Amino acid sequence: MPLDKQRKSLSTKEKQLITNIKHARLDSDLTQEELSYQISKNSNYIGMMESYRRGISLKTLFKIATVLDIKTQQLFENI
């Protein structure tokens, strides 16, 4: 079975978190590639996350919040 078929889909709350990250990234005028670079991920990492094809770890969430210069709890608004 392909790896993609084995993974469960993201929950509504996980998708909202990712949407909040995307909005914060856009507010910071960063491209997906720029943010990926700043958190030491490969260049398509953020694109895959923003299209809900991958989840996000807490470690990466904290890195993103640091780069975007926002409090982590702000990313959990509306969840």
Please give a handful of descriptors for the protein shown.
434 Repressor (Amino-terminal Domain), 79 residues, single chain, mainly alpha, globular, 5 helices
Residue-averaged pLDDT, rounded?
Answer: 92
Q: What is the gyration radius calculated from CA atoms?
A: 12 Å
Can you say what the CATH homologous superfamily is? lambda repressor-like DNA-binding domains
Distance between the termini: 33 Å
Beta strand count = 0
For the record, the count of structural domains works out to 1
CATH class identity: Mainly Alpha
**Assembly annotation:** single chain
Named CATH architecture: Orthogonal Bundle
Shape from CA axes? globular
Low-confidence stretches: none
Structural class: mainly alpha
* N-to-C SSE string, H for helix and E for strand: HHHHH
Describe this structure in words.
This protein is mostly helical and 79 residues long. It has a single domain, classed as 434 Repressor (Amino-terminal Domain). Helix content is 56%, strand content 0%. The chain has five helices and no strands. It starts with a helix and ends in an 11-residue tail after the last helix.
